[in-house]
Amino acid sequence: MRENRIQILPYVACVLIFMLCASLLPTAEVDAVNAENVVVGITTTTQLETPTGVHWDESEKFLARWDAVEGADSYTVVLYDDGSIQGYVETTETSYSWKAGITDNFGSGTYTFTVIATSEDESYTSSEESEMSDEFKYWQMPEISSTAWKVIIIVVVVGVCILIAAWPDKNIKKREKIIHKK
Description:
Elements: H1 2-24, E1 27-33, E2 39-47, E3 55-56, E4 63-65, E5 74-81, E6 84-91, E7 95-97, H2 99-106, E8 109-118, E9 124-125, E10 136-138, H3 146-166, H4 172-181
Parallel strand pairs: 2-9
Antiparallel strand pairs: 1-2, 3-4, 4-7, 5-6, 5-8, 8-10
């Protein structure tokens, strides 16, 4: 029995080495097989590099930027607010302005984003999602109805009138003296 185990070990070692080598090779897809079951074409795919340099532009609010990835035709930009996905866009540029999306749809929040490089070339697969960008904090003043504005204006005007009426007048004592002397 022991001799059988020793004879099998070289085969097991060969299989393990083959599996290790196969995992290091690029992914291959068979394009077609002819009538004799012979492979006609093989397509190898390479994963695009993960985008780097992911950051909010300091000089232009709402503008997301990242470095170009070789082989990428477009990028998927995913927007997060406090860690929750708010939306995503596809762009062929290495920047995207989220101004309309944030101000018109999402409002106040702490925003971050990630980028995924993509390609229409079948020899590439999409990249991994980039690291999370730095935070962009946006605060939007809530909308106030015209009625609420009228109430605020009335309260302010009444408050100013009360302050003026209660304001001490230095000349009151002088006037009282003049009035009492007559």
